[in-house]
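User:
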Amino acid sequence: MAVGDVETYYEDGVWKNKVQGNSRASDTGGTKKEAQARGRDKAIDLGVEHVIKNQDGTIGSKNTYPRSRDQHPPKG
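Assistant: Predicted structure:
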């Protein structure tokens, strides 16, 4: 992940969002779905990639904002 990308992850029983390069989470709490929505909004505002991790820490998905910046867009 690049500095500035937004990461949604699970830590200490809580879903969190953090902008890479920052030392602390920008927001915490709620369900994974709620944290993902807040993380997506933050990534859209910043125009960066949103990385969503599973509870075990593995990367579940990545979304690039704006979509035109995606170097590997989905085919179809």
